[in-house]
Amino acid sequence: MTAPAVSPARPTSQNAPLLEVRDLNAFYGQSHVLHGVNLHVRPGEVVSLIGRNGAGKTTTLKSIMGVLRSRTGQITFDGQDLTRLPSNRVAARGLAWVPEERAILSSLTVRENLELPPARPGGWNLERAYEAFPVLRERGHHPGSKLSGGEQQMLAIVRVLRSGPKLLLLDEPSEGLAPVIVQRIGDMLAELRREGLSVILVEQNLKFATRLADRHYVFVDGQVVDEVRADEVEARRADLLRYLSV
Ligand SMILES: Nc1ncnc2c1ncn2[C@@H]1O[C@H](COP(=O)(O)OP(=O)(O)OP(=O)(O)O)[C@@H](O)[C@H]1O
Protein backbone atom coordinates (compact mmCIF):
# COMPACT_ATOMS: atom_id res chain seq x y z
CA MET A 1 0.00 0.00 0.00
CA THR A 2 1.42 3.37 -0.88
CA ALA A 3 -0.21 6.52 0.30
CA PRO A 4 0.93 10.10 0.06
CA ALA A 5 2.49 11.69 3.09
CA VAL A 6 0.13 14.04 4.90
CA SER A 7 0.92 17.22 6.71
CA PRO A 8 -1.01 17.14 9.95
CA ALA A 9 -3.22 20.09 10.80
CA ARG A 10 -0.97 22.75 12.30
CA PRO A 11 -1.83 23.68 15.85
CA THR A 12 -3.22 27.11 16.54
CA SER A 13 -1.64 29.65 18.85
CA GLN A 14 -4.26 28.89 21.55
CA ASN A 15 -3.05 25.35 21.91
CA ALA A 16 0.61 25.61 21.01
CA PRO A 17 2.27 22.23 20.86
CA LEU A 18 4.58 20.97 23.56
CA LEU A 19 6.50 19.05 20.91
CA GLU A 20 6.68 19.80 17.23
CA VAL A 21 8.57 17.68 14.71
CA ARG A 22 8.97 19.19 11.26
CA ASP A 23 10.27 17.54 8.12
CA LEU A 24 12.25 14.91 10.01
CA ASN A 25 14.56 12.78 7.90
CA ALA A 26 16.69 10.12 9.60
CA PHE A 27 19.49 7.87 8.46
CA TYR A 28 21.31 4.72 9.58
CA GLY A 29 24.57 5.10 7.67
CA GLN A 30 23.58 5.18 3.98
CA SER A 31 20.07 4.00 4.74
CA HIS A 32 17.49 6.80 4.64
CA VAL A 33 14.59 5.60 6.84
CA LEU A 34 12.47 8.63 7.75
CA HIS A 35 11.23 10.80 4.90
CA GLY A 36 9.86 14.14 6.11
CA VAL A 37 7.92 13.18 9.24
CA ASN A 38 5.69 15.93 10.66
CA LEU A 39 3.88 15.53 13.95
CA HIS A 40 3.04 17.42 17.10
CA VAL A 41 1.91 16.75 20.65
CA ARG A 42 -0.09 19.31 22.61
CA PRO A 43 0.20 19.65 26.37
CA GLY A 44 -1.72 16.83 28.02
CA GLU A 45 -2.22 14.91 24.80
CA VAL A 46 -1.60 11.22 24.27
CA VAL A 47 -0.58 10.57 20.69
CA SER A 48 0.06 7.14 19.20
CA LEU A 49 2.41 6.19 16.38
CA ILE A 50 1.08 3.10 14.68
CA GLY A 51 2.19 1.12 11.67
CA ARG A 52 3.78 -2.15 10.67
CA ASN A 53 7.21 -3.38 11.75
CA GLY A 54 9.95 -1.32 10.17
CA ALA A 55 7.69 1.67 9.37
CA GLY A 56 9.90 4.08 11.32
CA LYS A 57 8.15 4.53 14.67
CA THR A 58 11.09 3.65 16.90
CA THR A 59 13.42 5.68 14.72
CA THR A 60 11.14 8.68 15.26
CA LEU A 61 11.40 8.29 19.04
CA LYS A 62 15.19 7.88 18.84
CA SER A 63 15.43 10.98 16.68
CA ILE A 64 13.35 13.05 19.11
CA MET A 65 15.47 11.88 22.05
CA GLY A 66 18.72 12.69 20.23
CA VAL A 67 19.83 9.05 20.48
CA LEU A 68 19.93 8.94 16.70
CA ARG A 69 21.86 12.06 15.68
CA SER A 70 21.98 11.41 11.96
CA ARG A 71 18.88 13.35 11.08
CA THR A 72 17.65 16.58 9.52
CA GLY A 73 14.58 18.69 10.15
CA GLN A 74 13.47 20.49 13.26
CA ILE A 75 12.40 19.24 16.67
CA THR A 76 11.01 21.86 19.03
CA PHE A 77 10.01 21.17 22.62
CA ASP A 78 8.42 23.73 24.91
CA GLY A 79 9.52 26.42 22.46
CA GLN A 80 13.17 25.30 22.42
CA ASP A 81 15.06 23.69 19.58
CA LEU A 82 16.23 20.19 20.53
CA THR A 83 17.68 19.31 17.18
CA ARG A 84 21.31 19.81 18.05
CA LEU A 85 21.23 18.67 21.67
CA PRO A 86 22.77 15.39 22.85
CA SER A 87 20.37 12.91 24.44
CA ASN A 88 21.30 13.69 28.06
CA ARG A 89 20.40 17.35 27.50
CA VAL A 90 17.18 16.38 25.73
CA ALA A 91 16.24 14.29 28.79
CA ALA A 92 17.11 17.20 31.07
CA ARG A 93 14.52 19.33 29.22
CA GLY A 94 11.77 16.97 30.40
CA LEU A 95 11.51 14.13 27.88
CA ALA A 96 11.70 10.53 29.06
CA TRP A 97 11.97 7.48 26.82
CA VAL A 98 11.12 3.89 27.72
CA PRO A 99 12.63 1.83 24.90
CA GLU A 100 11.13 -1.41 23.66
CA GLU A 101 13.85 -3.40 25.45
CA ARG A 102 12.82 -1.69 28.71
CA ALA A 103 16.30 -0.56 29.81
CA ILE A 104 16.28 -1.60 33.42
CA LEU A 105 19.46 -2.65 35.17
CA SER A 106 19.09 -6.41 35.42
CA SER A 107 21.79 -6.99 38.04
CA LEU A 108 20.29 -4.43 40.44
CA THR A 109 17.25 -5.08 42.59
CA VAL A 110 13.91 -3.49 41.92
CA ARG A 111 14.45 -1.02 44.73
CA GLU A 112 17.95 -0.13 43.51
CA ASN A 113 16.58 0.39 40.03
CA LEU A 114 14.01 2.76 41.46
CA GLU A 115 16.42 4.62 43.70
CA LEU A 116 19.18 5.10 41.15
CA PRO A 117 17.62 7.87 39.04
CA PRO A 118 17.51 10.95 41.26
CA ALA A 119 13.92 12.00 42.04
CA ARG A 120 13.41 15.52 40.69
CA PRO A 121 10.74 18.01 41.76
CA GLY A 122 7.39 16.79 40.46
CA GLY A 123 8.79 13.30 39.94
CA TRP A 124 7.54 10.11 41.52
CA ASN A 125 8.85 9.03 44.91
CA LEU A 126 9.03 5.38 45.97
CA GLU A 127 5.66 5.47 47.73
CA ARG A 128 3.95 6.65 44.60
CA ALA A 129 5.63 3.91 42.56
CA TYR A 130 4.56 1.24 45.01
CA GLU A 131 1.02 2.59 45.12
CA ALA A 132 0.74 2.41 41.33
CA PHE A 133 2.26 -1.06 41.14
CA PRO A 134 2.25 -2.84 44.54
CA VAL A 135 4.06 -5.79 42.98
CA LEU A 136 7.18 -3.61 42.79
CA ARG A 137 7.20 -3.34 46.58
CA GLU A 138 6.72 -7.10 46.93
CA ARG A 139 9.60 -7.73 44.53
CA GLY A 140 11.75 -4.97 46.01
CA HIS A 141 14.75 -7.21 46.69
CA HIS A 142 14.57 -9.25 43.48
CA PRO A 143 17.09 -8.52 40.75
CA GLY A 144 15.66 -6.97 37.59
CA SER A 145 16.63 -10.10 35.65
CA LYS A 146 14.20 -12.21 37.71
CA LEU A 147 11.13 -10.11 36.96
CA SER A 148 8.40 -11.08 34.52
CA GLY A 149 8.03 -9.05 31.34
CA GLY A 150 5.10 -7.15 32.84
CA GLU A 151 6.99 -6.34 36.03
CA GLN A 152 9.97 -5.15 33.97
CA GLN A 153 7.69 -2.87 31.97
CA MET A 154 6.15 -1.41 35.13
CA LEU A 155 9.60 -0.84 36.60
CA ALA A 156 10.89 0.76 33.40
CA ILE A 157 7.98 3.21 33.28
CA VAL A 158 8.11 4.13 36.95
CA ARG A 159 11.89 4.61 36.82
CA VAL A 160 11.63 7.35 34.23
CA LEU A 161 8.73 9.01 36.07
CA ARG A 162 11.16 9.69 38.94
CA SER A 163 12.51 12.56 36.89
CA GLY A 164 9.06 14.18 36.54
CA PRO A 165 9.04 14.34 32.72
CA LYS A 166 6.69 16.58 30.75
CA LEU A 167 6.59 14.16 27.84
CA LEU A 168 6.82 10.39 28.08
CA LEU A 169 7.85 8.37 25.01
CA LEU A 170 6.79 4.71 25.27
CA ASP A 171 7.88 2.11 22.75
CA GLU A 172 5.41 -0.80 22.56
CA PRO A 173 4.65 -1.02 26.28
CA SER A 174 2.08 -3.79 25.75
CA GLU A 175 4.30 -6.04 23.64
CA GLY A 176 4.44 -9.65 24.78
CA LEU A 177 2.46 -9.06 27.97
CA ALA A 178 -0.54 -10.95 29.33
CA PRO A 179 -3.90 -9.17 28.88
CA VAL A 180 -4.31 -8.55 32.61
CA ILE A 181 -0.92 -6.80 32.78
CA VAL A 182 -1.66 -4.79 29.63
CA GLN A 183 -4.86 -3.67 31.34
CA ARG A 184 -2.95 -2.64 34.49
CA ILE A 185 -0.40 -0.64 32.51
CA GLY A 186 -3.21 0.94 30.50
CA ASP A 187 -4.97 1.95 33.73
CA MET A 188 -1.79 3.60 34.98
CA LEU A 189 -1.26 5.49 31.73
CA ALA A 190 -4.90 6.60 31.77
CA GLU A 191 -4.31 8.01 35.25
CA LEU A 192 -1.16 9.81 34.11
CA ARG A 193 -3.14 11.23 31.25
CA ARG A 194 -5.80 12.55 33.63
CA GLU A 195 -3.00 14.25 35.53
CA GLY A 196 -1.99 16.03 32.35
CA LEU A 197 1.15 14.15 31.30
CA SER A 198 1.80 14.21 27.54
CA VAL A 199 2.66 10.87 25.97
CA ILE A 200 3.83 9.49 22.65
CA LEU A 201 2.90 5.85 22.46
CA VAL A 202 4.34 3.54 19.81
CA GLU A 203 1.95 0.61 19.51
CA GLN A 204 0.93 -2.29 17.31
CA ASN A 205 -1.90 -3.19 19.72
CA LEU A 206 -4.75 -1.12 18.31
CA LYS A 207 -7.07 -1.83 21.23
CA PHE A 208 -4.49 -0.53 23.68
CA ALA A 209 -3.63 2.50 21.54
CA THR A 210 -7.25 3.49 20.92
CA ARG A 211 -8.13 3.21 24.59
CA LEU A 212 -5.53 5.84 25.45
CA ALA A 213 -4.65 8.10 22.56
CA ASP A 214 -6.31 11.36 21.51
CA ARG A 215 -4.82 11.07 18.01
CA HIS A 216 -3.04 8.43 15.97
CA TYR A 217 -0.31 9.02 13.41
CA VAL A 218 -0.07 6.20 10.87
CA PHE A 219 3.43 5.38 9.63
CA VAL A 220 4.16 3.65 6.32
CA ASP A 221 7.69 3.37 4.94
CA GLY A 222 9.16 6.16 7.03
CA GLN A 223 6.34 8.64 6.43
CA VAL A 224 3.21 9.74 8.25
CA VAL A 225 0.49 8.83 5.77
CA ASP A 226 -2.61 9.38 7.87
CA GLU A 227 -3.80 11.00 11.08
CA VAL A 228 -6.88 9.75 12.90
CA ARG A 229 -8.51 11.46 15.86
CA ALA A 230 -10.03 9.41 18.69
CA ASP A 231 -13.54 10.45 17.63
CA GLU A 232 -12.89 9.12 14.12
CA VAL A 233 -11.57 5.73 15.19
CA GLU A 234 -14.86 3.83 15.01
CA ALA A 235 -15.62 5.05 11.50
CA ARG A 236 -12.05 4.40 10.36
CA ARG A 237 -11.35 1.14 12.18
CA ALA A 238 -11.12 -0.85 8.93
CA ASP A 239 -8.46 1.57 7.59
CA LEU A 240 -6.49 1.35 10.81
CA LEU A 241 -6.57 -2.45 10.77
CA ARG A 242 -5.45 -2.43 7.15
CA TYR A 243 -2.50 -0.18 7.96
CA LEU A 244 -1.40 -2.62 10.65
CA SER A 245 -2.02 -5.88 8.81
CA VAL A 246 0.87 -7.71 7.19
N1 LIG B 1 20.24 0.20 13.81
C1 LIG B 1 19.75 0.13 12.58
N2 LIG B 1 20.56 0.08 11.49
C2 LIG B 1 20.06 0.04 10.25
N3 LIG B 1 18.76 0.05 9.96
C3 LIG B 1 17.89 0.10 10.97
C4 LIG B 1 18.34 0.14 12.34
N4 LIG B 1 17.24 0.19 13.14
C5 LIG B 1 16.17 0.18 12.32
N5 LIG B 1 16.55 0.12 11.03
C6 LIG B 1 15.68 0.13 9.85
O1 LIG B 1 14.97 1.36 9.86
C7 LIG B 1 13.63 1.15 9.42
C8 LIG B 1 12.70 1.69 10.48
O2 LIG B 1 12.82 0.87 11.65
P1 LIG B 1 12.08 1.21 13.03
O3 LIG B 1 12.67 0.31 14.08
O4 LIG B 1 12.08 2.65 13.25
O5 LIG B 1 10.61 0.72 12.69
P2 LIG B 1 9.37 0.52 13.65
O6 LIG B 1 8.21 1.12 12.95
O7 LIG B 1 9.67 1.01 15.01
O8 LIG B 1 9.19 -1.04 13.66
P3 LIG B 1 9.54 -2.10 14.80
O9 LIG B 1 8.29 -2.26 15.56
O10 LIG B 1 9.89 -3.30 14.00
O11 LIG B 1 10.70 -1.55 15.60
C9 LIG B 1 13.50 -0.34 9.14
O12 LIG B 1 13.69 -0.53 7.77
C10 LIG B 1 14.61 -0.94 9.93
O13 LIG B 1 15.06 -2.15 9.32
Automatic annotation (TrEMBL):
Record domain ABC transporter: where: 19-246
Keyword Nucleotide-binding: yes
GO MF entries: ATP binding; ATP hydrolysis activity; branched-chain amino acid transmembrane transporter activity
Keywords: Amino-acid transport, ATP-binding, Nucleotide-binding, Transport
SUPFAM superfamilies: P-loop containing nucleoside triphosphate hydrolases (SSF52540)
GO biological process entries: L-amino acid transport
One Pfam family here: ABC_tran
Recorded superkingdom: Bacteria
Family, as annotated: Belongs to the ABC transporter superfamily.
Name used for this protein in its record: ABC transporter
Organism whose genome encodes this protein: Deinococcus phoenicis
